[in-house]
Write a structure and sequence with these properties.
Structural class: alpha+beta
CATH superfamily of the largest domain: Tetratricopeptide repeat domain
CATH class of the largest domain: Mainly Alpha
Radius of gyration: 25 Å
CATH topology of the largest domain: Serine Threonine Protein Phosphatase 5, Tetratricopeptide repeat
Number of domains: 2
Strand order of the largest sheet: 4-3-2-1-5
Distance between the termini: 69 Å
Helix content: 40-55%
Length: 258
């Protein structure tokens, strides 16, 4: 027997809403000893987001009540057992602060694209005061300094970015590439090498990374390492146009045997 249109089995079940928002955890601890001992409750706030595989990505809120710092992924059952929803706190406090931070970074981006580097610096700086590890703000500020040729200040941003794992996530790929290219153009070759090496620690199967590192080694006139990086890029993707053109260039220059 087949299902008829409009039958119960044909009706779409309503999709369950994903978990997203602010949650809290509490830790009970004891302070002091004997008659002076007392119990204290430490409450921590987290921004939580349910992923496609139904695990939960959590990130702590900083003192300014915006998500900041390392993200962790935990099973949904564990999350539901240990975390309590804070919907009012999310709506009244956290969401407005997240939106304002986003607007501040967006203003910085607009100023930078218009070449208004000092206004861009101000906006990015304001964003970093709220969230020191904001990836877009740090990239934007670093690019602003590099565009002005201020390599000393760019060095400070570089040192911060290499420690932020989120800087190497796919959503930031455009900024990541732009920053690496700017480091190379400003002759900050050692910094660029360290920058890409850090990316390789997190993803060693990206032909673009190996090709970018090959360019840097060529700047150093280090042909053996240039070739090694190019070969690794071509092992991953034999049809990669940039790597093949690069190899052809080296052959034309007599830097590698045909």
């Amino acid at each position: 027997m087949t299902d008829q249109p409009g039958s119960t089995s044909q009706k779409q079940q309503p999709s369950k809403e994903r978990i997203k928002g602010v949650f809290s955890t509490q830790i009970l601890s004891k302070v002091g000893t004997g008659t002076t001992m007392r119990k204290t409750i430490q409450k921590s706030y987290w921004f939580a987001n349910e992923l496609d595989d139904q695990t939960i990505e959590i990130q702590p809120l900083n003192v300014n009540y915006v998500p900041s710092g390392p993200k962790n992924i935990i099973p949904k059952d564990e999350f539901l057992d240990k975390f309590s929803p804070e919907p009012e706190f999310y709506t009244v406090t956290v969401m407005p602060k997240m939106r304002e931070l986003e607007k501040t970074v967006a203003r910085g981006d607009r100023h930078r694209k218009r070449g208004e580097t000092y206004s861009a610096e101000l906006e990015y700086g304001n964003a970093i005061k709220v969230d020191e590890e904001n990836v877009r703000a740090n990239f934007g500020l670093g690019l602003t300094y590099l565009e002005r040729g201020n390599t000393d200040k760019a060095q400070d941003i570089f040192e911060r970015l290499v420690k932020i794992e989120a800087a190497y996530e796919p959503e930031h790929k455009h900024l990541f590439n732009e920053f690496g290219i700017s480091l190379r153009k400003n002759k900050m070759i050692d910094q660029a090498l360290a920058y890409y090496a850090r990316a390789l620690e997190l993803s060693d199967n990206d032909e673009n990374l190996y090709c970018n590192i090959a360019r840097l080694y060529l700047e150093h006139k280090d042909i053996p390492n240039t070739l090694e990086m190019l070969r690794k890029a071509l092992e991953i993707n034999p049809d990669m146009p940039e790597a093949n053109k690069f190899m052809a260039f080296l052959k034309n220059k007599g830097l590698v045997a045909s």
